[in-house]
Amino acid sequence: MEFLFDTANIDEIKKYSQIYPYTGVTSNPSIIKAAGKIDFFPHFREIRGIIGFDRSLHIQILAGDCQGMLREADAILSKVDDKVFIKIPATEEGLKALHSLKNRGVNVTATAIYSKIQGFMALCAGADYIAPYCNRMENQDIDPLDAISAFAQMIARGFSSKIVAASFKNIAQVNAALVAGAHSVTLQPALLHDAFGMPVIHKAVDDFAADWMALYGKSGL
Fold it and tell me: What is the pLDDT of residue 34?
């Protein structure tokens, strides 16, 4: 089970990396927009410096055609580092690019997955990770949990890929994706922060402290 931070905000990564057992960082243009107009390549080199090479870094290309995808992938690999997972959309052009990159031994995450057939094709093309968009699938009246379960069944037959479920609006979706068979999830750290901020959690801690104080007349052991 892996938890990745879906953010390009360096302050967030530094803060929450001290709290949560995360395994990497993912990003896309919308996530980057939320972080502001960054100096793209130096920014991601800084992120790599924070997370190290024991954790994965996933960066998305922008081009819609295979040759453009390959050019952008090469730019990322040369200007950030050659261990980056290149995020390629699971389109026809994306599958062409995926084949080419995997033939060169490049790490690839197949993204923008809304359907089972996209995921199946990405698995056959050799993607290291496949990323079903859970909340966006629900918005299209597509069952993401059924798709994740199907992907997990295919992977159990011998594929080496992992499912990195993405696009969440709440922590219940995250939990459901993991139970359905996702090997990993990528989510904004704020979702984890909110989940651990439930008042009942803090009330339990406060109640324990109050009971101890009532019994011993002091705080702490």
Answer: 85
DSSP 67-83: HHHHHHHHHHHHHT-TT
CATH number at residue 187: 3.20.20.70
Distances (CA, A) of 149 to 118, 122, 155, 177, 183: 14, 16, 10, 9, 11
For 156, other C-beta atoms within 10 Å of its C-beta total 9
Q: Which CA distances in Å does 172 have to 127, 175, 203, 206, 215?
A: 27, 5, 22, 26, 38
CA 57, CA 197: separation in Å to the nearest integer? 27
Q: How many domains does the chain have?
A: 1
Q: Which domain holds residue 161?
A: 2-216
Residues 42, 45: Cα–Cα separation, whole Å? 5
User: Are β-strands 56-60 and 162-165 bridged in parallel, bridged antiparallel, or unpaired?
Assistant: unpaired
Whether pTM > 0.90 for this model: the answer is yes
Q: Is residue 136 part of a domain?
A: yes
In a domain, 221, yes or no: no
- Which residues are catalytic, by number? 87
Give the pLDDT confidence of 22-38 residue by residue, as tens digits: 999 999 888 888 888 88
